[in-house]
Amino acid sequence: MLKMEEAAGNGNYESRNVIIEVKGLTKIFENKLKAVDSVTFSVYEGEIFSFLGPNGAGKSTTIKMLTTLLRPSEGDAVVCGFDLRKQPQEVRWSVGVVPQEYTADEDMTGLENIMLFANLYGIPGDVARKRADELLTLVELNEAAGRKVSTYSGGMRRRLELACGLVNHPKVLFLDEPTLGLDVQTRTAVWRYIRILKEQYGMTLFLTTHYLEEADGLCERVGIIDHGRIVRLGTTGELKSSVGGDAIELGIREKDVDLTSFIMKVDSVTSVVRENDHYRIKAPLGEEAAPAIMDAVRSAGYHVDRISLTKPTLDEVYLEYTGHKLRDEEANSQQVMAQQRTVRRARA
Amino acid sequence: MATTEASVIGGLKVKDEGQVRINKGMLHGLWALTNRELKKWYKVPVLLFLSIIQPVIWLGLFGKAMNFGALFTSTSFNIPGLNIPKATLDQLATQAMLSTFGTTDYFSFLAVGMLSFIILFTAMFSGMSIVWDRRFGFLDKLLSTPVARGSIVMGKVFSSVIRSLAQAAIVLVVAVVLGMDTGKITVVGLAGTFLALFLMAMGLSALFLMLALRSTDWQSQMAIMNLLNLPLLFASNALFPSKLMPGWLQVVAKLNPVSYATDAGRQLLLGVPGFAPLGFDFLYLTAFAVLFSGVGIFLSWRYLSR
Ligand SMILES: Nc1ncnc2c1ncn2[C@@H]1O[C@H](COP(=O)(O)OP(=O)(O)O)[C@@H](O)[C@H]1O
Ligand SMILES: [Mg+2]
Questions:
Q1: Contact A105 B36 (CB under 8 A)
Q2: What is the Cα–Cα distance from B76 to B90, expressed in whole angstroms?
Q3: Among A240, A260, A284, where does a domain finish?
Q4: What is the number of other CB atoms lying within 10 angstroms of the CB of residue A40?
Q5: Which residue of A has its CA nearest to B3?
Q6: Are A234 and A263 members of one domain?
Q7: B112 near B265, Cβ under 8 Å?
Q8: SS3 (DSSP) at A294
Q9: Are residues A157 and A216 in the same domain?
Q10: What domain count does chain A have?
């Protein structure tokens, strides 16, 4: 387990406003299960922050606590300047939630759903109507707005959920596995909306995911969560360089000499391992290290057969810090059912 | 949360509503939530039809079949040896009916009971909708908004009340068509009857909702409903006067709000002597409605969020 300061992954974020501050947040369910185990982190205003972790890691439980749906067993949090425990109602006024499951009312139309939620946020009818139009345009549901939600496809439902979560123009939007079970097209669309919200609207987004590529492509900072604990937190770049940076594979024609210590002397190379007929070299910035290595090898009179450069993925980071690959953990039956329902509807 | 600067969403320049008046009052959203439930009902006329079919069948079959008055009048039995004149027998029968039901017309007696019946059966289902909402995650979504927790419960109570009163009105019309005695019906009597029904509907809906607040599966909710609805119906004067019941059952009937709503209705619509003074009927029903709504709202703050 990492020390807090180490896990904070500050980078150049110190100057930004903290919009969510979480300290030692813990949830122990009635069955004694510690779903979230003393997590501490901050989310900065205007960033896309994500929790990456397998099923059952405690992502949804964290979001439910931060959106006042579950009472924390221990710890505190300040969301948009309001104390989660003492001012839950104020927190509700200022955040939006897009839950993991599809929860819109099936018997109502998309528009009716949005209008209902606008009303629940106290938005007067005429303003609500304008916002509904605006949001339906954003999520490209204008045409289906008058149809019952029960006729919607999974992608449309997800987009409607997004619109409902935005109706109060929240400062922070929580998205719980926003692309779970979606086809590639809809997933890309959802990513596009999320970027629009951040870039054009300055919204802060807190999302959870168990897709590595989602965390990698969308978020600035990622917290890797496993068994209810944050095992590593930082910008995607920091996380990747923390596993030793880029990997360079180098093949040399002269198979009978060992160049390990020779390569090690090249600037910025952090490790060299000889494997069969090639060397595995790690360096923080591969594109600078690779030419330097080639120059050094050539000027010493050896011949480079092949060289390749791989950027680390979050996969490796994940493996490094959790000791296992992203795997599906057994969840309770109700959760499985809810998830299956969501996935089934997503594919419908 | 009124945003003052113009915001841009989806590439659209949205002129944001400068000083949006956000309604932060305790009651905001209450009507929207009530209307959500009502829409599901009035937009599907089949449901309305199905829900009144049962009381109408009771009226048509049970009410007409149990022709207690005819027990004496339309038979020509006599006691051997005694040659009682038919007129005397008829008069005996009438007296027996009057002292039992307060009217010679069991059908009219039952018709008022059926108004309570439909209220009870509609209220019973009010708890079901919260179970579904919880199951499909809709409840969580409601809870993540700043709507008052009490409004979530009261929205369901009010929609159930409105539904049940509308259905009671239909049942009353059907009863009149089928031959209910309308001789003593007045506007004030009607209004009073529906006020009594309103109070009962409110209390019962709140009661069934309260029982469903924590429930996650509809089977257990069904079990609770079945456990309560028949006793509430039979241990009341809705179908049969409670004074002919065994003592212990009379005690239950005397506590049962269904008895008081039915009693008020019979006094006001049929002009029959009541089993309690009219004023007491209303007092009891008001207390019942206020108590259970109050407890319902209180529990909703405690139990809706975990
Ligand atoms: N209401 C609950 N009661 C008991 N255990 C729960 C409850 N909700 C979730 N859990 C358990 O808590 C753990 C974390 O769940 P969750 O936060 O939903 O994980 P994730 O969203 O990361 O997949 C899981 O093991 C899950 O089974
Ligand atoms: Mg989850």
A1: yes
A2: 10
A3: A240
A4: 16
A5: A169
A6: no
A7: yes
A8: helix
A9: yes
A10: 2
Share in percent of chain A as helix, strand, coil (round to 5): 40, 25, 35
Indicate if ligand 1 lies below 6 Å from the C-beta of A58.
yes
- What is the residue range of A91's domain? 18-240
Mutate which of A25, A26, A28, A29 for ligand 1? The one with the most ligand atoms within 8 Å of its CB, which is A29
Give the nearest ligand 1 atom to A70 CA. Answer: 1
> Is A317 a domain residue?
no
Residues in chain B: 306
Which amino acid, A60?
A: S
How distant is the Cα of B202 from the closest Cα of chain A, in angstroms? 23
* A59 and A87 together in one domain: yes
- For the four alpha carbons of A317, A320, A324 and A330, in that order, the dihedral sign comes to negative
Across the interface, do B12 and A102 touch by the CB < 8 Å criterion? no
Does residue A230 sit in the same domain as residue A274? Answer: no
Distance in angstroms between the alpha carbons of the first and the last residue of chain A: 42
Phi, psi (5° rounding) for residue B88?
Answer: -65, -45
A137/A272 same-domain check: no
Is the distance from the beta carbon of residue A94 to the nearest atom of ligand 1 less than 6 Å? no
Q: Where are the alpha helices (DSSP H) in B187-256?
A: 187-212, 218-234, 247-255
CA dist., res. B156 & res. B33, Å (int): 7
Q: Which of A217, A240, A263 is at the close of a domain?
A: A240
In a domain, A82, yes or no: yes
Phi/psi of residue A35, nearest 5 degrees? -75, -35
A176 lies in the same domain as A273:
no
Question: Which residues in chain A show pLDDT less than 70?
Answer: 1-14, 323-348
Query: Looking at this predicted complex, what is its ipTM?
Result: 0.82
A31 lines ligand 1 (CB under 6 A): yes
Spatial separation of the C-alpha atoms in residues B190 and B268, rounded to whole Å: 7
Q: Which of A103, A141, A196 to mutate to test the interface with B (most CBs of B within 10 A)?
A: A103
- Positive or negative, the Cα torsion across A182, A186, A192, A197? negative
Domain with A269 in it: what CATH number?
3.30.70.100
Q: What is the DSSP letter of A280?
A: E
Strand partners, B13: B8
Q: What is the distance between the alpha carbons of residues B106 and B272, in angstroms, rounded to a whole number?
A: 12
Q: DSSP per residue over B106-140, as a string?
A: HHHHHHHHHHHHHHHHHHHHHHHHHHHHHHTTHHH
CB contact under 8 A, A102 and B23: no
Whether residue A64 is contained in a domain is answered as yes
**Is residue A139 domain-shared with residue A164, that is, in the same domain?**
yes
> Which two three-digit tokens encode residue B163?
């539904």
- Measured between alpha carbons, how far is B27 from A62 in angstroms, rounded to an integer? 30
Per-residue tokens: B77: 């039995």
Which residues is A50 bridged to in the sheet?
A207, A222
Assess contact for A290 and A245: CB atoms under 8 A: no
A226 lies in some domain: yes
B43-81 confidence digits (pLDDT tens): 888 878 888 888 888 888 877 776 666 665 656 666 667
**CA-proximal residue: ligand 1, atom 18 (nearest):** A60
Q: Kindly report, residue by residue over B164-203, the tens digit of the pLDDT.
A: 999 999 999 999 998 888 888 899 999 999 999 999 999 9
Nearest neighbour of A120 by CB, restricted to B14, B145, B216? B145
pLDDT at A175: 97
Between strands A246-252 and A278-283, the pairing is antiparallel
Over residues B263-284, the mean pLDDT reads: 91
Minimum CA–CA partner of B19 in chain A: A127
